[in-house]
Amino acid sequence: MHHRKHQKKKKNWIPTLVILILMILVVSELYLLFFQNHSNSVSQNNTTKPNVKTSQSITRLTKDAQHAENFNQEVKPTSDLAKQIDQKLSDNQFIGTALIIKDGQIILQKGFGYANFGKQLPNTYQSLFQIGSIQKGMTATLILKQIQAGRLSLDETLDHFYPTIPDSQNITIRQLLSMTSGLCQKVKATNMMSDDAFLRFAFSNVTMGDYGKFKYDAINYFLLVGILEKLTDASYQQLFHQMFNQHLQLSHTMFYNNFLTSNNRTYAYARTNGKDFSSEIKDKPLLFNQEVGTGNIAMTTGDLYLFYYNLLEGKIVDHQTMNTLWTPETQKGYMGGVYNFSNYVQGHGVEEGFETNAFISKDTKNSVILFTNEYPGAKIYQELSKNIFDLLGSY
Questions:
Q1: In sequence order, what DSSP letters do the residues of 305-322 get, joined into one string?
Q2: Where would I find the Beta-lactamase-related domain in this sequence (predicted)?
């Protein structure tokens, strides 16, 4: 009897033991799950931290002018030379954006005055300005690409493309590039039209002046645009986009219509009696509509330098082709959209309150680029740009 009671008492411990074992298993499982998740979290944190540092090191900007990303910053003057130039710009009441490069380093890139005076928005390194006739240098570059490819030559005559143009059998591609063809456009368009329609209108209103003598007239470059389109079976805008926006990756370069809606656009102003921003110069779409290949592009200072840098370094057109254009005979003269000197080139453009001045050494180490949205008239900023350029080296 006693033995049976003892057995029953023993059996009462079995459910308790089972519950205890189950609890231990559950706790162990929970611990393992927690530990594994914690380890994965630590592991992920340890692997992402170096990537963050690597990303930061890749995007960290320097002052090296050979890399496009380094123009995406304001560069305040730190050296004595940069401070001297900055003061010179202020003393001359410069309005716009200035980019100065010395020995391949950006020593100054900043805005002066306002991009939009009414809204008190300042000019910055991101500001877009109309570059005017400097675009002709880009059109000339597209022509040189065709010459390098063997589809065209500098000595080819205009009659191969436009035989009805006066004296076209005597006018060469070289003469169009140097504006020594003698051609003039006698009538200007008075209404908006497509690029194709405008070119047809311009070519039907050409007259001959003094053959062989320099005369600055946009008709020469309108004809070059037409030749490009005949050679490639593509529009000028397509060719421009492929070369400069895609190939060179100039992401702050655009045609006039896109400029009008850009948040970074500038507005042009007139200075009256020494007073800045005294009146706004209204947008004139009709005028810019008539600048096909000759003056309807907006850029930042950085993008313009990158264009000249790639051109002079032979990264767009090879040096052999460039040397056939820039011969000793063309020095100190206009050729291919720039004024060519022995050791530097000069670009200049003026249009409806905008002015662009660019001086770049042929070794690309030194450069002065001044964009203004308040053209002061005469050659004030041209002379200022050259004076600053002379501070960078012997030119």
A1: HHHHHHHHTTSSS-HHHH
A2: 83-389
Over the stretch 139-187, which tens digit does the pLDDT of each residue have? 999 999 999 999 999 999 999 999 999 999 999 999 999 999 999 999 9
> Which of 86, 104, 99, 130 has its CA nearest to residue 369?
99
What is the C-alpha to C-alpha distance for residues 259 and 130, in angstroms, rounded to an integer?
8
Cβ-Cβ contacts under 8 Å for 239 (sequence gap 6 or more)? 142, 228, 229, 232
Name which of 300, 388, 368 is nearest 91 in CA terms.
Answer: 388
Kindly tell me if the per-residue pLDDT of 4 is higher than 80.
no
Residue 24: other Cβ atoms inside 10 A: 10
Q: What's residue 65's pLDDT?
A: 97
Q: How far is CA 260 from CA 108, 246, 299, in A?
A: 27, 21, 12
Q: pLDDT: is 13 or 314 the higher one?
A: 314
Domain boundaries, the chain: 1-38, 68-392
Q: What is the DSSP string of 20-82?
A: HHHHHHHHHHHHHHHHHHHHHHHHHHHHHHHHHHHHHHHH---SBTTSGGGGSS-B---SHHH
Residue 54 contacts residue 47 (beta carbons within 8 Å): no
Give residue-wise pLDDT tens across range 284-335.
999 999 999 999 999 999 999 999 999 999 999 999 999 999 887 777 789 9
Residue 331 token pair: 């020095």
For the chain, the average pLDDT equals 90
The tokens describing 156, both together, are 């080819």
Please state, in angstroms and rounded to a whole number, the distance separating the CA atoms of residues 44 and 47: 5
φ, ψ of residue 97 in degrees (nearest 5): -130, 135
Query: Going along 73-173, which residue ranges are E strands?
Result: 96-102, 105-112, 114-116, 121-122, 129-130
SS3 assignment, position 216: coil
Confidence of residue 273 (pLDDT cuts 50, 70, 90): confident
In the CATH hierarchy, which top-level class contains the domain 68-392?
alpha beta
Query: Which residues face 334 on adjacent strands?
Result: 339
DSSP 161: T
Closest CA to 359 of 379, 374, 373, 343: 343
